[in-house]
Amino acid sequence: MTAYLVKRLIAGLATLVAASIVVFGVLEVVPGDPARLMLGMNASAETVQVLRDQMGLDQPLAVRYLDWASGMLALDFGKSYTYSVPVLELVSERLVVSLPLALIALALSTLIAIPVGIFSAARRGQTADTISMGAAQIGVAVPNFWFALLLIYVFAVWLRLVPAGGFPGWESGFWPALKSLLLPAIALALPQAAILARVTRSAMLDVMSEDYIRTARAKGMPRRHVLWRHALRNAMIPVVTIMGLQFTFLLAGTIIIENVFYLPGLGRLIFQAITQRDLIVVESVVMLLVAAVVLVNFLVDLSYAAIDPRLRARQ
């Protein structure tokens, strides 16, 4: 088990190094002078040169990469030239919105998808299976921003149960802040629940064809116990894998939803930084998201051994 953990840690570190080189290189080859774009086309050459010096754009490419990478290791992400505040402070302010939003969306997605997947697998080929998987197919096909607009119209405009957008802050109270995240979390969760339900159904069908499931049924074990105690646990590895991928997607891929609901989260921060060519913010936030992906994948790998004891024996 220790050797397995060391291998996964080395692979994660290698991924971070490779991702940092790619992120830095891609942003460097994007056309246009960041200093000129930030100051405007009417800015004088002297003013542009001063900003280039402040941003370190006059340094060689390798030196700039090493300075940036070493700063990341020391948790010094630099200073945003658009907001004139440290990037870490910006990320901390936005993460208190994006992280709860992603966690709520993942929880809703899981609570919806796993029971639907099990229900559909237990009724394979029946009308209930066709209806549930048809609904899941619609959920996969329809974009989440359409769900968002529909939810705003029904629950915010028509019923007036929750706000249509904005975030009051957690300091205004837990319930007002949670209410502002409910609609975007549902809009994010529904398409993800559709994907997870289909994966759960497929994994359950694969497991239910195994000999030990037929043996449990032959011994007279209730069908519910067979499904929830035996089949589900052995079908969880692909389900947990998709859940890990979905969490990283929900954390990083909320740009559209956060703009629809006008939420001050990481997705909106990345969008604003890209449009303003605030390179240090884009580079730092993207690398933090890459680190989150690597960490979640590492935790998913660890969960495999907890789910299936046979994997622990192999490692």
Automatic annotation (TrEMBL):
Coiled coil: none
Location in the cell: Cell membrane
Annotated Pfam families: BPD_transp_1 (PF00528), BPD_transp_1_N (PF19300)
Keyword Transmembrane helix part of the UniProt annotation: yes
UniProt xrefs under Gene3D superfamilies: MetI-like
Topological relation to the membrane, as annotated: Multi-pass membrane protein
Keywords associated with the record: Cell membrane, Membrane, Transmembrane, Transmembrane helix, Transport
A GO term, aspect molecular function: dipeptide transmembrane transporter activity
Annotated InterPro entries: BPD_transp_1_N, MetI-like, MetI-like_sf
Cellular component aspect of the GO annotation: plasma membrane
Superkingdom, taxonomy of origin: Bacteria
Residues annotated as transmembrane: 9-30, 95-119, 140-161, 181-199, 231-257, 285-307
KW Membrane (keyword) present: yes
UniProt domain ABC transmembrane type-1: residue ranges: 95-300
UniProt cross-references to PANTHER family, sorted A to Z: DIPEPTIDE TRANSPORT SYSTEM PERMEASE PROTEIN DPPB-RELATED
Similarity comment: family membership: Belongs to the binding-protein-dependent transport system permease family.
Name of the featured protein: ABC transporter permease
Origin species: Borborobacter arsenicus
Highest classification ranks of the organism: Bacteria, Pseudomonadati, Pseudomonadota, Alphaproteobacteria, Hyphomicrobiales
